[in-house]
Design a protein that fits this description.
heterodimer; A: mainly alpha; MetI-like fold; globular; B: mainly alpha; elongated
Chain lengths: 220, 239
């Protein structure tokens, strides 16, 4: 505890850095995964490619991905961009599949009704398909965000920042309190982000809460 | 692209610190951990699944996703000291839960009608477990094993940070010597190893699982790297 109290500013800095490293990729990944998931859901070939490629990408250990991305991107080896890109890749790999599954689970009846009401393809996707897919997308996002928060720490072994610094520093200087604080903070951060995502998902899908008088959207 | 020069230089492949030696070390750590994890997790998972009760295990295994591997590793090494014991415990902590959860879920998900039919035919508890439940649960069990394998291969890489051998050495030694081609070569080797091992187990799954169950591999895929959603609460248990 004394270690924590004596190092609050450092902990704060690392925490902020960690949040940026972990969550920017999740946002980028989500933005990229929506159109890709849509594509994968439309064609059989697209689906096969997406499922196999995302499985393959997810197989690559994070440390390896952090380190060999520079060879592909041409960035410098300790450029933070590498971590952002690597974690975005994982998020896309995870979410594309989730989104494709979620979209294919939207009932045909609802899709046909929307078409019959005069929705264009794009408007229907944004206004009908996507909202109905939110619960499943949120579930995928929770897994992606929690993994991302945990994976950022691995980057500290090759010099990237974030809460993982407390592991490398605590290890080198043998400060057990620092390591434990780091583990607790990572778990807490994951818990907070996970809870926020659940709440956001609930706020975005009022029709999921039956019997509260707020049924206005499509009922699946 | 001269980053790849190190990897294709034959001189780096031999000797006590060469690629071949590091690869053998990496495979050795992985194999040892997998054997212990299998010996612990499969019987316990099968027993709990067979006896029913204990869904805590599955959610607990998912909660581990939030636990930072590196933190666990350095903490154990700080407590226990350098050597293989600390990393081995860390690898087991990461490797056992997916296999346990896969075995448990596999057995629980066997169609009750099949189990009833087996009992109706006069099979006893033991026969039901070995001849009916386990073969039917195999896709999910192997799914759990593949998931554990990936965790162990990637964590064994990080274990080089606390002084172990294995392919991770190239990444950390390369970093210390500012030898980036070595770092990148090492990371490519790790990635290829993970992909090849996963493909091997995917093939094994096709060979071992009864053709009658092959039509529905979805459940199995879900349980590996990316357990899909719905009923899981990744962090609640962990924190």
């Amino acid at each position: 505890m004394t270690w924590v109290l004596g190092n609050l500013p450092l902990i704060g800095d690392l925490l902020v850095e960690h949040i940026l490293f972990a969550l920017i990729p999740v946002v980028i990944g989500l933005v990229l995964a929506i159109p890709l998931g849509w594509l994968a859901n439309r064609t059989r070939i697209g689906r096969t490619i997406v499922i196999n490629l995302s499985g393959l990408l997810y197989t690559i250990p994070s440390l390896a991905l952090f380190v060999f991305l520079p060879a592909i991107l041409g960035t410098s080896i300790l450029d933070p961009i590498n971590v952002i890109v690597a974690l975005s890749v994982y998020t896309v790999a995870l979410l594309v599949r989730t989104i494709a599954d979620a979209l294919s689970a939207v009932p045909d009846l609802v899709v046909n009704s929307a078409t019959a009401m005069g929705y264009t393809a794009v408007r229907r996707f944004v206004g009908v398909d996507l909202p109905l897919a939110i619960p499943v997308i949120v579930a995928g996002l929770r897994v992606a965000a929690v993994s991302s928060i945990s994976l950022v720490t691995v980057g500290s072994t090759v010099g990237f920042g974030g809460l993982g610094r407390m592991f490398t520093d605590g290890f080198q200087r043998v400060i057990t309190a620092e390591i434990i604080t780091g583990i607790v903070l990572v778990l807490l951060l994951a818990l907070v982000v996970d809870t926020l995502l659940v709440q956001a998902g609930k706020a975005l899908t009022p029709w999921e809460r039956a019997g509260q008088g707020t049924r206005q959207g499509a009922e699946a | 692209m001269n980053y790849l020069g190190w990897l294709f230089d034959g001189a780096n492949w031999s000797g006590p610190q060469g690629i071949t030696q590091r690869l053998i070390e990496h495979l050795g750590y992985t194999a040892l951990t997998m054997l212990i994890a299998l010996a612990v997790a499969v019987p316990i998972g099968a027993w709990i699944g067979h006896r029913s009760g204990g869904g805590v295990i599955v959610t607990g295994a998912n909660g581990l996703r939030a636990l930072p591997t590196l933190g666990l590793l350095v903490l154990l090494v700080t407590w226990i000291g350098l050597g293989f014991t600390g990393p081995l415990i860390a690898l087991l902590v990461l490797g056992i839960p997916p296999i346990l959860a896969g075995t448990y879920a596999g057995i629980r998900n066997v169609d009750r009608a099949i189990v009833d039919a087996a009992t109706g035919m006069g099979m006893r508890g033991r026969d039901v477990l070995f001849k009916v439940e386990l073969p039917n649960a195999l896709p999910l069990i192997i799914g759990g094993i593949r998931s554990a394998l990936l965790q162990i291969v990637s964590t064994a890489t990080i274990a080089a940070y606390v002084g172990l051998g294995g392919l991770g050495r190239f990444i950390f030694d390369g970093l210390a010597q500012r030898d980036f081609p070595q770092m990148i070569g090492g990371s490519i080797l790790v990635a290829v190893l993970a992909v090849v091992l996963d493909l091997l187990f995917g093939g094994l799954q096709k060979l071992l699982v009864s053709p009658g169950l092959q039509a529905a591999p979805r459940g199995a895929r879900r349980l590996r790297a990316v357990p899909s959603s719905r009923q899981q609460d990744p962090v609640a248990e962990a924190a």
